[in-house]
Amino acid sequence: MTDSHWGLTDKAIAVSQPAKNPDAFFESVVSRFRSFGAEHILITGLPLPGRDLGKLVLYQHWGDSVLSSAHLAQVRGSDDLLRRIAVLSKPAYWNLDDKDNGWIRESSLIGLLQRSGSSPRSYRSLIGIHVHHFNVMQVAICVAGQELNVSERS
Question: Rounded CA gap, 107 and 23, in Å?
Fold first, then answer.
């Protein structure tokens, strides 16, 4: 089940004036999510189904080490987590402990965290965001942490 913590009145992660270039935007987003308790962050262009993340990753701290090209090639555009993020119109929050979210465990992105030796608690909560702001690309932001506490932030 997708649970949205962000309505029109909750500006917890809303960006009122996004940066003009992607790099500046990503730098500000990463520090913001760290303050929410994020332990893993992946910012990537959205691959088409059948393609992989290979050259699309814009920022990564996903697991305990930098993902190699071989690791990124394992994540296809048909990945369940990426496909769900690709159709989001607003940020979504998922908790792996929720029985309705069993599909998340099938995601190659979660598989990479499991194989990296990261503690399962460090990716129990997930946030997915689809960024439409930049004309040249569509971007998925995946954030994982033990407790992502965005509902109390302003």
Answer: 27
Find residue 43's DSSP bridge partners. Answer: 59, 141
Give strand pairing partners of 94: 126
Residues constituting the chain: 154
Closest CA to 62 of 48, 85, 83, 44: 44
Q: By the 8 A CB rule, do 114 and 120 touch?
A: yes
- Contact of 97 with 121, CB cutoff 8 Å: no
Q: The tokens of 7 are what?
A: 């309505």
User: Do residues 138 and 116 touch, judged by C-beta distance below 8 A?
Assistant: no
Query: pLDDT per residue over 31-72, tens digit each?
Result: 888 888 888 999 998 888 889 998 898 888 888 778 888 888
- Supply the pTM of this predicted model: 0.79
Q: 98-103: long-range contacts (C-beta < 8 A, 24 or more apart)? A: 98/1, 100/1, 101/1
Residues 6+ apart with CB under 8 A from 87: 130
CB 125 within 8 A of CB 145: yes
Q: Are 139 and 45 in contact (CB under 8 A)?
A: yes
pLDDT tops 80 at residue 117: no
For residue 11, what are the contacts with CB-CB under 8 A and spacing of at least 6? 154
